[in-house]
Amino acid sequence: MARARLLDWPGPASAPLTLVIPEGSTAEVARTLAAAGLVRHPLLFRLALWLEPDGPLHAGEFAFPAHASLRVILATLRHGKPVEHHVTFPEGLTVAEIAALLERAPALTGPISSLPAEGTLLPATYAYLWGTPRQAILTRAAEAQRRALDEAWKNRAPGLPLTSPREAVILASIVERETAKPEERPLIAAVYLNRLRQGMRLDADPTVVYALSEGQGRIGRPLSRSDLATDSPFNTYRKTGLPPAPIGNPGLAAILAVLHPAPSDALYFVADGKGGHLFARTLEEHNRNVARYRAARTSPGGPAQEGAEEGR
């Protein structure tokens, strides 16, 4: 009876608590628990261990309920799952932006010793445990992208003007930054693929932003017309064809949009002022769409200008 009272008596913690249990002796674990307020005294925990010799204790980060008893604490340290953390890489971020995100993520450890190449990380949510190295998350994201890209490229539509999976990622990184509407990605991809087939410049605003930001991905202001004259191999207003590298890390949906574009012969698109775009096959039709957009923009309550050029 006394044994049961000792093991099952409510503990002193008045609220749920997450605690990192380090590698070490049982005495060190007992002191850690007492310092955090989970047990009243280290000796009580060591006595509980003697009364309940049911396997080794594990190091890691564990979650304990309020007033956790010694029995609950022992079961948690022996059989409980460590706390799982998550970090999400949104679609379209540059490698520099992802590195900054990892620096802020809780429970990760160590420096980022080497940055991967732009466009080689798969945007997704990655689970990890306390103490995971930051570099390990980058390695996982790179491997996830390699597997996803290999499969997507193997099943691509025929006749695309792309010669390698890398070219698909380059174009997908542009498509990713051009629209926030998932249903528009295959149409945006079709426009750019049609332009590549005809030897036209892509005239993609996001490539200019990437050049101006020196790979950071944001410039904190709208593009100006003078920005479009920026001398950079990434500036698709001056250079024909694809940029030399991706301008971010596209999600799988953008990659699939490039490899399975919409059946469209459109060559132009312009913002519609509602977060989407209007598409056109001819320059004449496109100019009408641009005029419509400009008229809506200058009317009371019209949309704000989104960039240097209203359409491509």
Fold and architecture overview:
The protein is mainly α and 312 residues long. It folds into three domains: 2-79, Dna Ligase, domain 1 (2-Layer Sandwich), CATH 3.30.1490; 84-149, no CATH class; 158-298, no CATH class. It is built from eleven helices and six strands. The strands form three sheets. The chain has a two-stranded antiparallel sheet. The radius of gyration is 28 Å and the shape is elongated. Residues 303-310 have low confidence and may be disordered.
Keywords:
single chain, 312 residues, Dna Ligase, domain 1, 3 domains, two-stranded antiparallel sheet, elongated
Write the layout of secondary structure elements.
Elements: H1 2-8, E1 17-21, H2 26-35, H3 42-51, E2 60-64, H4 70-79, E3 84-88, H5 95-104, E4 125-129, H6 134-154, H7 165-178, H8 185-198, H9 205-212, H10 252-259, E5 268-271, E6 277-280, H11 283-298
Antiparallel strand pairs: 1-2, 3-4, 5-6
Helix pairs in contact: 2-3, 6-10, 7-8, 7-10, 8-10
